[in-house]
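User: Hi! I'm a student and our assignment asks us to look at how structure tokens line up with a sequence. Could you show me two examples?

Assistant: Happy to help. In each example below, the sequence comes first and the structure tokens follow. Example one:
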Amino acid sequence: MESARQFALLACVAVSFSQAACVASAELEGDDEAVEEVQQAAITVNALTVNALTVNALTVNALTVNALTVNALTVNSLMGSSLTRDALRTPESRELLRFIVGCALPEEARLDVKIDGVPYSFVGDLGLAPEWGSKRGSCDEDCQEWVSACLLARVNYRGEHVMISLRGQNEALSSTKRELARYDEAEATYFGNVFQKPQRLFACLAPGKKQIPRVCGPSIDRCPIDVVGECEDVCDGPRSDGSFLNCRDREPLDVPCGRGPRVFPRGADRYKASVSVFLE
């Protein structure tokens, strides 16, 4: 589709650095070459990371519609499925798998595979669904929603390497006081399920926001992610770290004054997993 083609952007290979590397990136702000070198990789301290997932890789991809989630996120399972092996022959699928592994598995996880004789490595990062990487693991609905929210939060319209703070009701998304203070501009909250067909791609606007240029570009009207309204209307919260939870994929029929209950249209789905993004 036209909007998807417009999002064919450069990808960033997700690699984990130590906390010292994150501190170093802040200290090197006066050295353009050093800053650029640090920004080529995803720096994760708690849930501080770099976004660069392209929309094409996310929305036009065999990995999200085959048997990936019913099997373990391991080398044996990936290479043991002809569907997965065939999908990984395309750069878009390999890009997506890098971010799936980065969102789902912890830092110590690493998947080394060969595709048509070429070696590739997929490195764990945030650890939102570590059980998926166990020998007999799989990705149930909770796992799918957490990984999906993380993937949506890391989409970038221009392919720019922007540091973002990811927050939500998951231990993997805990934030330090320093991170909360430095990344204090609320952007949006992301939720859905990219592993279903059709994919469910949703976002809501943080208080006071009208656009999401990092993800949607110039206007949310042509955003490949469905922006369903303001987070205060469609989600519960905010929590103490500013994140929202229990977000719905439709706006309420009526937003009551005060603390009255919201009534949502029949058929509106609620997502237990959501990731809120904050910028510097």
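Example two works the same way, sequence first and then tokens:
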Amino acid sequence: MPFALLKDRALISVSGPDAEHFLQNILTTDLDTLDPGVAKPGALLSPQGKILFDFLVSRAGDDGFRLECRADIADDFVRRLMLYRLRAKADITKQDQPLVTIMWGDDSTASHFDSIWADSTSLVDARFRDVAVRRFYGGSAEDGDLDAWLGLRIANGIAESGSDYALGDAFPHDVLLDETGGVGFKKGCYVGQEVVSRMQHRGTARRRVLIASADSPLPAPGTELTVAGRPVGALGSVSGRTGLAIARIDRVKAASDVGNKIMATDVPVTLAIPAWAKFSFPQDTVSAEEA
């Protein structure tokens, strides 16, 4: 079974009698629907609805939570959580140098995951729909296959900050948090909730994660995608001839309707919606001239 050790991750612990209420009031994830043994995506937003921090959240004991995030943003994330804590009875601490291992396979192999890392915490990565993915905190320190993990993320349309978008530059809908369980639309208010809810109810989300493919190797992450010289998006993670992109789906659809090529420098690119996603290309698009 393929696996990979992620050396660029950090774990933040939030525990205490007010931990759940405190987090529920500031994060996008609905903690009321978070089951034990599951890691769900989420974000802490700016008041304008942009993602300041992205993470995976899971339960830890009776009154605690783990927030797994990029190691390079962990200290800033802790400081921001401290800022919002006020009088809440919640302890916030960062765990130094945690071992975070990913293992994946089909449903027939999922039952064997726990026995391999029996001494670690095992969590289902809820972002993935078509393949069983587990995250292990603790256990083996073997490197595994990071290239295979990158390929799995790309094939399933799972974007992460740093690799695929810059923090402060994307709304939750842009990176599909609305479809991977990272946004609770039935929960109460949280930071940035008004903007996110308005995008959801008005159906105004136009930037989306798409899977990019080409007949030759794709250029580097961050390369602009253009149609007739006009920008429609940018590449994120890249592995050979496939990658992730965040692009304007209305402009992609308009280009397709009139047969215009989407280009990444000099490489023609095809953009597709992840198979599991519920959104679709809009019927009413920008004009062919705009595309």
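Here is something you could point out in your write-up. Confidence is low (pLDDT under 50) at residues 287-291.
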